Amino acid sequence: MNTAASIKDWINKLQQNGKLYFSIEQVSEAFPDIQPTGIRSALARLSAKNSIVSVWKGFYVIVPISYTVKGILPPVMYIDHLMQHIKRPYYVGLLNAAAFYGAALQQPQAFSVIIQHPTLRDNNKKNVRLQFVARRNFPTVELLESRKTQTGYVKISSPALTAADIIQYEKEIGGLSRACTVLNDLTEVLDFTNTPDAFFEIVRTATIQRLGYLLENAVESPDLANQLYKKALQANCCFQKIPLKNGKTIEKRMLDKKWKIIINTEIEIDE
What we know:
alpha+beta; 4-stranded mixed β-sheet; 11 helices; 39% helix
């Protein structure tokens, strides 16, 4: 049996056991007698037939028959294994995390992965874009949730952290109005009464101010806003005057005294 056929059989057995991903190191371990050039050549031929896709250097996903039209697996089915492969802490965030809570209006154009600084380049394979957003203060496990997928588990941001992230990284998802549209749907699962102190340690105070102001005024959820305000005071957050939208000229100096937000933009929520 030739090299490509042997490796294909090995990949088929992985798939039969429910594993839809593998690394080139695993192939080398399984076939110690095959030279690295032979392994790479065999994997290239299988890739050309769309049986597998290299989503990262040295990391492949298997494409089952049910996904041959798309040509690749949804990232949620392999992202945990990929991040273990490249040894980077991560969680699925922004619109993709919101979707787990039923708060995404449409399919996000990118799959957002929050990682610990330094950042990684975005990755685009088969029209599927992995968007990496790096943060220096990485959350502890109490601010993350684990959700079951078809191939294992995936880490996602908690409702509170998701809400904070879509405000902090609003440019990555299409602006404040879109963030508020998602926030509006997130209110059904939000509750700040038991938010751990770790939340206020990693989320910028400016983000908390903007989130609180938007909950109270744009989303019209004063109870949630008051919960957040009370917890922020307990966490000794020091509010200072900041614009609602960064980088926009402040023409009218309307100030929300409670949240110390300078209102310099209008928010429109899609119903």
